Amino acid sequence: MDNLTHSVTGLAMGELVERSLPPETDSLRARTRRKLLLFTCWAASNFPDLDLLLTRLSPRPLGYLLHHRGYTHTLVGVLPQAALLLSLTWLLWPGARRLLRGSPAARAATVGVALFGLLLHVAMDYLNVYGVHPFHPFDSRWMYGDMVFIVEPVFWVALGTPLAVMASRPIARLLLFALLAGGPLFFTVFGYLQWGSLLGLFLLGALLVWLERGGAARNRKALVTGLAAGLGFVAIQAVAVQSARELVTQQLTQRDPGTQVLDVPVLAVASNPLCWGFVTIESNDALGNYRLTRGALSLAPSITPVSNCPTALGGPGKATEGTALIWLWEEHGKLSRLRELASDNCYFNAWMRFARAPSLVGGSATDVRFGTPGSPNFSTLNYAQRAGAPCPRNVPGWGFPRADLLGLH
To answer: Cross-referenced Pfam families, in alphabetical order (predicted)?
Structure first.
């Protein structure tokens, strides 16, 4: 997820914990505890992304692909990160240190939100198509939720609106509301969000303002409602993902009964459970071929035709009325070529520890989850230029997402 989402989620959860605890008797300790819990949960919710500092360990683009969402995004990595965050807070914040020495409730809550914030970060990153490998080193396979777009305004509005109302300074409140309203509006104007989704977000925001405005200092209605809205959205998306994947798989087997469908990465659209993009990975071992396709679908074409789905899907273009699914692009390749490259080119081999939908065109490899080969993206590797070069340094031992295509199963 984007760091704005991680931040508002961490701050909202910190505030919810603070309002759920018995109040401190001393006003100074009460203010310190609130600041401490909000800061700790906010910092923990962003802390794993410090692995961006490790991207220089390997040459581009491998540094980003293999070291971001790496060791800090594992369950084993949560404890040392929590220990580091809490130690720094203890050493650098005298007021927090005095509070923690004298308040068992503050100590327990601070440790709890640190661990919770770190786990929440990993869980939220799991929700999108990029994925994580949380059980490394015991299981180094990538895991993908495919449920939520990596920049999701639902979380901004559901958890950020109560925080905006709670802001004590008018300028801070104004800036937060401008961000919460302006961000979704910007995405809508540029075609990444439908106007119906924007209306739904504004209605949710209005409800949360009404629940929080004028409430008592420890009112939790807006925070709990926002949390429920976020969880409900994830649950709806989870059901929709399965429906989308089943629809695509059914269409593939009808098109080519001899194909083996290996994977269907589903590409979420912001704040929209009806529209989805997808990529398919198929193989035909008898012919020694594999195929990648990319398309778009609508789970309710009578309400939202696939041609009306946001342009984030890559521009579905023309589709007949009532069409639920359209194919946008496909690529055919030889399994032998893919396996030969993985064996002979160590840069390509390292890249395959990330790639879930590997496309090979003109000496470059691109993961088409993030765009078509004609539009290079952050995943694109020019493997032809690396042929014969010294092997890349510091390649983590993540599992190959396409071990099936590489014949490693």
So the answer is: YdjM
Instruction: Assess whether pLDDT exceeds 60 at residue 315.
Output: no
Helices and strands per DSSP (H, E), number in the chain: 13, 8
**Looking at the domain assignment, is residue 370 inside a domain?**
no
Closest CA to 361 of 343, 342, 380: 380
Specify if 280 maps to a domain.
no
The tokens describing 8, both together, are: 């508002």
Asked whether 160 and 223 are in contact (CB, 8 A), the reply is no
Which domain range does residue 104 map to?
Answer: 3-236
Over residues 211-224, the mean pLDDT reads 82
User: CB–CB of 226/208 below 8 Å?
Assistant: yes
DSSP string computed for 57-70: GS-TTHHHHHHTTS
Which residue type, as a one-letter code, is found at position 349? N
Would you call 321 exposed, middle or buried from its count of C-beta atoms within 10 A (0-12, 13-18, 19+)? exposed
Cα separation, 409 vs 4, in Å, equals 39
pTM for the structure as a whole: 0.93
Distance CA 367, CA 383 (A): 13
Residue 379 in domain: no
The count of domains in the chain is 1
Q: What is the pLDDT of residue 215?
A: 63
Name the token pair of 349: 């081999």
Give the 3-state DSSP-derived string for 88-132, with helices as H, strands as E and coil as C: HHHHHCHHHHHHHHHCHHHHHHHHHHHHHHHHHHHHHHHCCCCCE
Residue among 236, 234, 230, 280 at smallest CA distance from 260: 280
**Does residue 352 lie within any of the structural domains?**
no
